[in-house]
């Protein structure tokens, strides 16, 4: 498991087409990818299981805890990105609720765009 940080500071200011915003890249893959939004309510849990493919969880709202094979939990909050390798055991849980985007693909390399936390 690796923890990355989503941040505006690592983004690029986009001005084309009279735009004015910052784009922070997250991932690029040539393999097919599955992208979903997960909503964990109060005391929600994504049970301890093996990742079928590499997975990247982007925390959008709320706070929670993640772990891998080690029994130590790490707190996550908006702006955090958690990466698990294929076959890595992991779990996500929350006391008060958490919303996140999960990206799953055979080819994920979050280190290409985001710094480690």
Explain what the structure shows:
The chain is globular and about 45 Å long. Strand 2 (12-14) and strand 3 (21-23) form a beta hairpin. It has one domain: Sandwich (Jelly Rolls). The chain has strands at residues 2-5, 12-14, 21-23, 33-40, 45-50, 55-62, 64-67, 74-76, 80-84, 89-93, 98-105. The mean pLDDT is 93. The chain has 117 residues and is mainly β.
What is the name of the CATH superfamily?
Jelly Rolls
- Helices, by number, come to 0
| Mean pLDDT over the full residue set | 93
Fold-level CATH name? Jelly Rolls
**What is the number of independent domains?**
1
Using the CA coordinates, give the radius of gyration: 15 Å
Strand content: over 45%
Shape: globular
Which parts are unreliable, with pLDDT below 50 for 5 consecutive residues or more?
A: none
- CATH C-level class is Mainly Beta
Distance between the termini: 12 Å
Total beta strands: 11
User: What fraction, in percent, of the residue positions are helical?
Assistant: under 10%
Structural class: mainly beta
Major sheet details: 5 strands, antiparallel
Strand order of the largest sheet: 1-9-6-11-4
Order of SSEs, N→C?
EEEEEEEEEEE
CATH architecture type: Sandwich
């Amino acid at each position: 498991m690796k923890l990355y940080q989503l941040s505006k500071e690592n983004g690029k200011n986009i001005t084309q087409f009279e735009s004015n915003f910052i784009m922070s890249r997250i991932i690029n893959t040539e393999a097919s990818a599955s992208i979903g939004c997960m909503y964990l309510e109060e005391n929600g849990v994504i049970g301890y299981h093996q990742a079928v493919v590499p997975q990247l969880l982007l925390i959008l709202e709320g706070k929670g805890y993640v772990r891998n094979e080690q029994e130590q939990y790490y707190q996550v909050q908006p702006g955090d990105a958690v990466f698990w390798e294929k076959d890595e055991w992991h779990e996500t849980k929350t006391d008060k609720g958490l919303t996140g985007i999960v990206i799953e693909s055979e080819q994920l390399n979050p280190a290409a765009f985001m710094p480690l936390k």
